[in-house]
Amino acid sequence: MTAIGTWYGSWGMQQVLFSWLVVGELREDARWVGTAQMFLNLPSLALLLAGGVTADRRDRRRLLVAVHLLAAGTTLAMAQVVRSGRLRLGALLVYALAWGSFQSFVGPARDALLSDVAGGELLRAVTTATLVQFVAQAVGARGAGFAERFGSPALLAVQAGVLVAGLVPLSRLALLRAPRQPRTGRIKGRALAEIREGLQAVWQSPRLRPIVLLVASNGLCFLGPYYVLCPLIVRDVHHGGVADLSMVLVVFPAGTVLGSFWLLLRGGIRRKGRALLLGLLGGGLSLVAMGLPLRFSAFLAAVFVWGLCGAVFLNMSRTLFQESAPPPLRARVLSVYSVALLGVAPISNLGSGLLANALGPALGCVVCGLIMVGVIAFAWWRTEVRTMS
Fold first, then answer.
1. Distance CA 60, CA 97 (A)
2. For labelling alongside 325, which of 121, 133, 179, 194 has CA 20 to 30 A away?
3. 184: helix, coil or strand?
4. What pLDDT, in 10s, does the model give residues 93-143?
5. SS3 for 293?
6. pLDDT at 145
């Protein structure tokens, strides 16, 4: 949990600082804001499944240590670029690709490790991990809001320091090694076969297939509004700065933290599928509200409710996946979950940028929210998700 906290504390800072470098320091228009966020998630399409195979083959602790070090070094390099006054969109896009690659390997390894150490308390472990993740993300996002006072380079250096601090809990974690894979055939061919095994395990499961499609719908309708439309609304509608942007990116994880804490106190939810659908529905309606002509405080309240609903969806969907994943394929199956959530993010981010350019960021939120409401109506009446427990 401490290792999860350090990664997501850094990631919370990354969300604010990267968005601010695009909308605040470079002052790019909506199309380029969407394009930059697309580059941040683009590696998920190619690398998340490979990350699942790697986590099933390798010592997961060592893999996480290596990624923490690479991410820290890359963030320090970006701090130097900004400090020297050489920040350009091209450098920022390369930086986004690097960070997207790191996230693609961290996610499957972290999720598989959670199953390794959780024992029989899987729902409790997943909910606690979600709680820790979003507490750390909120703290990191709020800390990044001091970029106006201390400068973006200094905050990027702090972000790198948080990543290095994550090496301490990782070094203390006693883990079983991932099972060794048979050394037959070419390594590349074997890796592709293992990726196919993970995809088939999800698609052939009547329990996992509809959930993964809903997770993909969540990524398509929600990630672009969060990463692209929210920063544009802060800048263009409310005329705010980096401190205001950090508040928006704090209240969402704050809502997720509160929702996860409530789930822990009540001991979980028996009808997980119905709760999952209601959580998505609440998120869609929150997004519609965010597109209305609200005061900034009311806009923050809508984002907070979105985070509350996100806690229910994330915990229920992750738990259903964790419970149904075959142990030999666990990291690969969980990487399919991550691909469904993040693999569509490049499309969502680019589409949100184009939507904001055509209709404005506020109306773009309304359109995305209404699409999600339609998806939930279909899933409620035409699938068995609502009966899952």
1. 22
2. 133
3. coil
4. 999 999 988 988 887 788 777 777 766 666 678 778 888 888 898 899 889
5. coil
6. 84
